[in-house]
Structure formats: structure tokens, C-alpha cells
């Protein structure tokens, strides 16, 4: 765990316009002072991310909302009250002075208070030291690749491009935050996550709407994303033994991401994930990364249930399948 001295060093780096790897409860972020366009530009360079993709600004608490957003609706404060600190990002109209580098030139900004003690300590210390109080941070992976859920993964992804990685242990949630767009009145779900539509409904009185084709760009919403280098395919649990047997006879080695059918038949590599969505999400990215490193010919994902509780996991798997082997 990061101590006070490391937090102080991270604050100095942020104020000097450098990048810091930050643990959050969802995934690790690659952070820069959100008020410093030159620092934010370093994020895009380090990730290899297109400059028009907007970043989430992390803030120490809802009291900071109006430093970054304007015309903040009551509903934003209600959602903040219910879910912050936590894995929910709100898209709001941006305040004057929020750099284009952060918003990708859009008139909106993404804001979140992360539910991780190290991230909160850092955000509070950064604000107290006269910083902007906002840390722009995308997931700390190279563009289009698997999001990191440990400090080690961040170093593996970004190496020397990041001055300091604060170690906050493995991320508790394991997949990126739920994104709700409040900028046009009715709440719109841009990215599913640990905070479910029914949890949002409990606060808003209605389920969030699905995005329209004109919805703002979100790199987490690109079809191919979160992808390992190895090719991937999805196979129903019932067909798994037969499929793997055929692969073995072909001399092909698979990495199997399973949750219901345990197996160990070599030469395949098995990763058993919990058979419930929160546990599965928690372990998903680390498991994909491990199978990718195992040098298998193919990553085989046992199909998951098609129920609302699995929506966020299904979303990440679909994008990983679309981008794998690219
Ligand atoms: O859990 C998370 O949200 C993590 C941690 C580090 O906080 N961050 C994260 O950042 O996933 P990133 O950049 O990998 O994904 C942020 C998503 C992107 O899909 C981006 O396009 C979207 O948020 N986003 C940010 N600002 C936006 C805006 N103004 N309008 C629409 N989408 C926005
Ligand atoms: Mg990302």
C-alpha cells in the first residue's frame, strides 16, 4: 500500500505536469492534472490513444462538481449521494475553463469520485496542496488493450512512460465504471458497470435509456476494445469438452476461461472464474492477461448467462472478442 510519503511525491509529480499510475476500485488509472493541457497530452502519448477521446476527471467529492461542470441537475447530486465514492461516472455539461484536451473538444465532461482509499487520499492531498483538485485518468492500458487491475499490470503496459505507480493492491470491482450521461436531460447508459440499471432506477425513478447513434464518443464503447493479443472465441459450456478435444487433436493449445465446467485436460490451460457476475468481473482482466501471456493459440470463453446481472461482463467480453488477435 502507498504511504504518506508516496502520496506527497505523487502530488509533486502531478503539480509538475507528470503522469502517475493510480489505483481505483474499478481499474488502475493513468492520471494527470486535469487543468494542465500539456500534462493531459502526455496521457494520450503514453497510451497511444486518439486525442479526440475524452477522459474522466476524478474529483475528491461531489462538492467539487461545479468546478468542472455547469448547470448540474439535482439528479447528479442525488446519484452522487447514492454512489460516490464509487464506480459511477456522470457526464455533465462542462464548466468554462475545462481544457479541450480533457473533453476531446466536446461540451461535456465525465466526472467520478473513486471509491479507493489511495485514490481519495491522493485527490484530497492534491487539492489541499493547491492543485486543481481534478485528476484526468483513463484506464492505464495501451489503447484498445486489457485494462490493468494491479500496479504490476500498469508497469507492464506503460513501463517508463509513467513516473510513479501508486500500489493499492488488486482492484475490488475489476471492470470500468458505469457511465451515465446526464447532459441532455434524461439519464442515458453509455457503459454498463458494477452500478446496475436497476440501482440507477432506484434513484432516478426510471431505467437509464440506451444510447442513440448520436451519443458522444466513448472509447470504452468502441466495438473492439479490452482485447488480448491472442485470438478469442466463445463456446457454449455444453459444447466445451468436444470443442477442446477437437483442438487437442489438431495440436492446438487453448486458454480456457471457464466458470461452470471445471477441467484440466492438457495441453489446454484452464482459468476458473467465479460463477456469479461480481466475482467474474473482479477476476476477468487478470485472467485474460494471464491466458494471453501463456502463449496459447486460442482463448476460449465459456459462454456466460444472458441475464441482466451479467450485462457489464457480457459487454466487456463482447468487445474483447471483437478486438482479440488484432
Ligand atoms: O472506471 C473507470 O471509469 C476508469 C477508472 C480509471 O476511473 N477509467 C476509465 O477511463 O475507464 P477510460 O478513459 O478508459 O474510459 C472512459 C470512458 C471512455 O469511454 C470515454 O470516451 C468516456 O469515458 N467519456 C469520458 N468523458 C466523456 C464525455 N464527455 N462524453 C462521453 N463519454 C465520455
Ligand atoms: Mg479504457
What keyword list fits this structure?
9-stranded mixed beta sheet, globular, 11 helices, DHBP synthase, alpha/beta, binds threonylcarbamoyladenylate, binds magnesium ion, 4-stranded parallel beta sheet, 13 strands, 326 residues, 2 domains, Rossmann fold
Quick recap:
This protein has 326 residues and is of the alpha/beta class.
Characterize the structure shown.
This protein has 326 residues and is an alpha/beta fold. It has two domains: 4-204, DHBP synthase (Alpha-Beta Complex), CATH 3.90.870.10; 232-323, Threonylcarbamoyl-AMP synthase, C-terminal domain (Rossmann fold). It has helices at 4-15, 37-47, 65-68, 74-83, 100-103, 117-128, 151-158, 197-204, 240-249, 277-293, 311-323; strands at 20-22, 29-33, 56-58, 88-93, 108-112, 135-136, 164-165, 178-181, 188-191, 232-235, 254-258, 269-272, 298-302. The strands form two sheets. The chain has a nine-stranded mixed beta sheet, with helices on both faces. A four-stranded parallel beta sheet has the order 10-13-11-12, with helices on both faces. A hairpin with a 6-residue loop joins strand 1 (20-22) and strand 2. The longest helix has 17 residues, at 277-293. The chain is globular. The two termini are 35 Å apart. The mean pLDDT is 93. It binds threonylcarbamoyladenylate (TXA) and magnesium ion. Residues 24, 26-27, 29, 53-56, 89, 91, 103, 106, 108-110, 112, 114, 137-139, 176-177, 179, 190, 216-221 line the site of threonylcarbamoyladenylate.
Amino acid at each position: 500500500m502507498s504511504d504518506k510519503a508516496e502520496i506527497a511525491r505523487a502530488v509533486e509529480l502531478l503539480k509538475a505536469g507528470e503522469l502517475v499510475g493510480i489505483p481505483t476500485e474499478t481499474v488502475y488509472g493513468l492520471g494527470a492534472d486535469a487543468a494542465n493541457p500539456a500534462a493531459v497530452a502526455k496521457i494520450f502519448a503514453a497510451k497511444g490513444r486518439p486525442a479526440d477521446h475524452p477522459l474522466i476527471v476524478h474529483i475528491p467529492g461531489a462538492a467539487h462538481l461545479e468546478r468542472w461542470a455547469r448547470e448540474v441537475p439535482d439528479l447528479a447530486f442525488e446519484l452522487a449521494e447514492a454512489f460516490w465514492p464509487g464506480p459511477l461516472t456522470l457526464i455533465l455539461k462542462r464548466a468554462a475553463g475545462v481544457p479541450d484536451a480533457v473533453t476531446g473538444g466536446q461540451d461535456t465532461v465525465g466526472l467520478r469520485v473513486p471509491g479507493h482509499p489511495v485514490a481519495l487520499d491522493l485527490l484530497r492531498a492534491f487539492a489541499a496542496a493547491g492543485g486543481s483538485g481534478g485528476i484526468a485518468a483513463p484506464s492505464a492500458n495501451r489503447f484498445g488493450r486489457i485494462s490493468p487491475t494491479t500496479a504490476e499490470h500498469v508497469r507492464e503496459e506503460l513501463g517508463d512512460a509513467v513516473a510513479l505507480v501508486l500500489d493499492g493492491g488488486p482492484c475490488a470491482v475489476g471492470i470500468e465504471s458505469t457511465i451515465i450521461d446526464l447532459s441532455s436531460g434524461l439519464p442515458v447508459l453509455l457503459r454498463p458497470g458494477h452500478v446496475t440499471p436497476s440501482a440507477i432506477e432506484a434513484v432516478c425513478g426510471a431505467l437509464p435509456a440506451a444510447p442513440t447513434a448520436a451519443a458522444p464518443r466513448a472509447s470504452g464503447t468502441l466495438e473492439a476494445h479490452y482485447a488480448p493479443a491472442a485470438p478469442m472465441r466463445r463456446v457454449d459450456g455444453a459444447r466445451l469438452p468436444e470443442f477442446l478435444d477437437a483442438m487437442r487433436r489438431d495440436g492446438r493449445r487453448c486458454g480456457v476461461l471457464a466458470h461452470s465446467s471445471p477441467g484440466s485436460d492438457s495441453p489446454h490451460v484452464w482459468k476458473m472464474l467465479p460463477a456469479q457476475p461480481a466475482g467474474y468481473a473482479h477476476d476477468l482482466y487478470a485472467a485474460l492477461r494471464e491466458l494471453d501471456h501463456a502463449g496459447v493459440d486460442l482463448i476460449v470463453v465459456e459462454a456466460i448467462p444472458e441475464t441482466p446481472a451479467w450485462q457489464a461482463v457480457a459487454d466487456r467480453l463482447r468487445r474483447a472478442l471483437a478486438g482479440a488477435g488484432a
